[in-house]
Amino acid sequence: MRAMNIGKATALALTVVWAAGCSTTNTTDTDTMGSDTAPATTTQAVSDSSMSGTTMADVKNLATVFYFDFDQTQVKPEAVAALRGHAKYLADNPSASVVLEGHADERGTREYNMALGERRAQAIARVLTVNGVSSSQIELVSFGEEKPVVMGHNESSWAQNRRVELKY
After folding, report:
1. Does the residue 26 lie in any domain?
2. Per-residue pLDDT tens for 63-105?
3. What residue numbers bound the domain in which 129 lies?
4. What's the pTM value of the predicted model, to 2 decimals?
5. For FRET with 88, which of 35, 44, 55, 168 sits at 20 to 30 Å CA-CA?
6. 29 inside domain
7. Residues 42-70: pLDDT tens digits?
């Protein structure tokens, strides 16, 4: 039990340090996540003070799709605020549960993309658990490249297919 609490505290500290370090960088990677290619839902910022997070109505205003860079499993800093809102809802409602569906673009083997989708879902799950969600409330599913949201063989299509979707 004590080891688990230490692990959670360490994960939280690492997440805060990572987010703080990333927040000072000015990246304008229009090739992978330009404003013309990705839905604006990933950039919604919700402060903890402006949302109670205790009802499903509060959660409906949050992003439910989180995008990843090519061959990456790191949660983007702009996704953390929305994930904290989801975590607050789930922590306040222990009977609620969420399915994290991991996806990848079509590049790579089927097996690799299935594993990548799972690792992406696990990354989102880590943010939720660090913010108070019980692991029993979270189910992970990987679809790999099998369920693209956009059909196409270019970077703008691939960028929208590299995602994790939260389903309540």
Report:
1. no
2. 999 999 999 999 999 999 999 999 999 999 999 999 999 999 9
3. 39-167
4. 0.69
5. 35
6. no
7. 333 333 433 444 788 888 889 999 999 99
